[in-house]
UniProtKB/TrEMBL annotation:
Residues 634-645 have a biased composition (Basic and acidic residues). Keywords: Cell membrane, Glycoprotein, Membrane, Peptide transport, Protein transport, Symport, Transmembrane, Transmembrane helix, Transport. It comes from Oryzias latipes (Japanese rice fish). InterPro entries: MFS_trans_sf, POT_fam, PTR2_symporter_CS. GO terms for cellular component: apical plasma membrane. The keyword Membrane applies. Electrogenic proton-coupled amino-acid transporter that transports oligopeptides of 2 to 4 amino acids with a preference for dipeptides. Transports neutral and monovalently charged peptides with a proton to peptide stoichiometry of 1:1 or 2:1. Primarily responsible for the absorption of dietary di- and tripeptides from the small intestinal lumen. Mediates transepithelial transport of muramyl and N-formylated bacterial dipeptides contributing to recognition of pathogenic bacteria by the mucosal immune system. SUPFAM superfamilies: MFS general substrate transporter. It is a multi-pass membrane protein. GO terms for molecular function: symporter activity. GO terms for biological process: oligopeptide transport; protein transport. Residues 622-664 are annotated as: Disordered. It is found in: Apical cell membrane; Cell membrane; Membrane. This is Solute carrier family 15 member 1.
Amino acid sequence: TDKEDLKKEKKVVCGYPISIFFIVVNEFCERFSYYGMRAVLVLYFKYFLQWDDDLATSIYHTFVALCYLTPILGAIVADSWLGKFKTIIYLSIVYAIGQVAMAVSAIHDITDSDRDGTPNNMTFHVVLSMVGLFLIALGTGGIKPCVAAFGGDQFDDHQERQRRTFFSVFYLCINGGSLLSTIITPILRGQTCGIYSQQKCYALAFGVPAALMVVSLVVFIVGSGMYYKAKPEGNIMLSVCKCIGFAIKNRYRHRSKAYPKRKHWMDWAEEKYDRLLIAQIKMVLKVLFLYIPLPMFWTLFDQKGSRWTLQATTMDGNFGQLVIQPDQMQTFNPILILTLVPIMESVVYPLIKKCGFNFTPLKRMTVGMFLAALAFVCAGVVQLQIDKTLPIFPSTSESQLKLLNMGNNQLEVHLPNNFTILCSKHLYCRFVNGLATDLNVSTAAVNFGIIEPLTSSNYSLLKNGKHTFSLKSGSQSCEYTIKFGFGSSYTIFIPSTFTFGPNCQESVTEVEEIKPNSVHMALQIPQYFLITAGEVMFSVTGLEFSYSQAPSNMKAVLQAGWLLTVAVGNFIVLIVAEIAKLPKKWAEFFLFASLLVAVCVIFSIMAYFYTYIDPTEIEAQFSQEKDEEDEDEKDKMRKTEEHVTKRGSVKSNDSDNAFKLSKM
């Protein structure tokens, strides 16, 4: 065939089409780009756009939901219109533009007209970042169902072993890209950069993923001449939807009791569609029915990138010589996946089987959901410990008052009990100049500028650890060193009695407004372990179960259904958080855990009544019945032909006799 001829022309290296190497590199770069951007996204919302935790969480989960809705659109466009190759190219361009837009939106100097380190036109940054996120969601979701399938198209039918190896390497690249990006981009975010003022470098944290996406696109285009490009042949999802739609309409037309009932409502499509297709759709619908409770798992799972990251910002990430950033805690997920998958498959599951327990796929999924609920119980317990160390913040109906005695004598002040001080959760620092002359304060990361007499500087965000400040007034100068902890806030007071010199450190007064975070980030490791173990038992097993229970030509439908559960799960985060409006985060964690336990019970009941099937056997039965029907039809046609032939011979004899009689 033409397809086989095209594939024979392709270059081969070690038994593999050379084209797949471009596809593998493309996937690694794309996954690095996506997960790297996503790792720092919620902190960008909170600290750069200055949104509160709830708004940052809501927009984050809306974005993730869109990323899992658009693959359905991408699959339909690729299979019915453009083909996989063109779909990947066009949407990758959209994707790269979105990443670049995100990087530009994080450059604070663009609208920082007063050069104080804070953008003056926040609307510009918000609009540009939202446009960027929409383009990224369209791009990453649109190419998601195409790249793996396009790679599979490069192999001949006899290269089954090579195809399996390709998919193993392909998914290894996904996890490898995810792992490296969640380590590297938080480090880039932690750097300081800027033209006029040095701030956290979100532009660099988004810029590197943008560059990797451009590299991904270029690599894919370079291999263009080596690919086998299958033509669009129609999307099975459209056929399924049309068949289901016809069955519903036909059933509605015949809703009167005058019409006899049929065994299954899909049987009302028999007037127009093949019985085998209807049987295949019935099998798929049976699996999709089990999908109904599944979004709740993803509701909890995807919060590791939002609520859990925000939780880590109030914790101490000092691991001795190693300092972990809050968004780097997500790295535990890909590390544990690469560790737990082989352990589960080669040790845990065989051991359970030897113990005589029938640990079916649906039972594994139920346990996975329960483990995810336990993870959120752990998160709630950790949050209770964190809350004990946090200062009491004023509500919207309260005011704040901060007093600084800049005189030489002690000052006694009496205040009502309901006055509180508004403090920060992050590491902030400011200087107060009690001298009679201007004071210039700077450090390697931040320049506080000139502070006039008896005034204070703005608060500046600093990295935790030791900082040395240069204090200058006229020709006099000295250095002052202080060590900051995670989450602390300081006011450093330069009194009127301050003297420059080698011992100037002793004259400085430090006011610790918020103590450093004392709850260690290591306490998050158990919840990451439980949620990842739950993911391995739920997600990996769920896809394996779904594929085993559906016909081979319906895999795309199930993949679309599975991705839809992820999207719905992220929307549930918004709904529950908006309805509940719990003031305490620990209560919200316990609420989500309780909801998943309830859903877990419902799913276990549904799983108990589920009957496992063999789609291949059912399809074979239909094929056999069809063959028998075809054989019966042939027999009828044969008999009809024989009957017609016999009648024709009788007519021929009659005409011969009539001819003979006429001659006589």
